[in-house]
Amino acid sequence: MADWMGWLVAAGLLVILELFTGTFYLLMIAIGLALGGIVALAGAGPSVQAIVAGIAGVLATGLLHRSRFGRRQRHDPSRDRNVNLDIGQRVTVPAWDNGRARVMYRGALWDVELGHGATPHAGDFRIVEVHGSRLVVANHL
Q1: pLDDT tens digits for 21-63?
Q2: Are residues 48 and 7 in the same domain?
Q3: Residue 10 in 3-state DSSP?
Q4: What is the mean pLDDT of residues 9-24?
Q5: pLDDT for the residue numbered 72
Q6: Average pLDDT of span 98-110
Q7: Is 28 exposed, middle or buried (0-12, 13-18, 19+ CB in 10 A)?
Q8: In a domain, 71, yes or no
């Protein structure tokens, strides 16, 4: 098998593997391998092929990492409404004991604690975070 075929077969295998991961990083390495195959087809030696493939793969991966597709949003799932539908819901606290309380919410007893800036008074509160079976609440607006 010719050198250029080996490079392109390796690139094709990485593209197939990329379909299972969905991150685009293997696709960037596959681009580098394809460029190595193109350089091999042009008649360059094995060392030049490897250098071009390596540089192209690293550059493509770096560009992807800096793009909007490579940046992962660092969301705290305990505060994200899309992850936990309890966030933003109303809960009624009858009494507080040192910034903590037990309330009935959705048919079960939950521990409740005050969030930053909330004042302890009996009444309605808004859920701002969920940590396991503990609700963190703020004053209801």
Answers
A1: 877 899 999 999 999 999 999 999 999 999 999 999 999 999 9
A2: yes
A3: helix
A4: 91
A5: 65
A6: 91
A7: buried
A8: no
Number of domains forming the structure of the chain: 2
Q: In this structure, what CATH number is given to the domain that contains residue 97?
A: 2.40.50.140
pLDDT attached to residue 71? 67
Question: Are 33 and 60 in the same domain?
Answer: yes
Length of the chain as a residue count: 141
Tell me the average pLDDT of the chain. 89
Identify the burial level of 84 via C-beta atoms within 10 angstroms of its C-beta, where 0-12 means exposed, 13-18 middle and 19 or more buried: middle
Q: Is residue 74 part of a domain?
A: no
31 and 59: one domain?
yes
| Whole-angstrom distance, CA of residue 86 vs CA of residue 75 | 16
Sign of CA dihedral 77, 82, 88, 94: negative
3-state secondary structure of 7: helix
Helix (H) or strand (E) holding 58: helix 46-66
Residue 56: domain span:
3-66
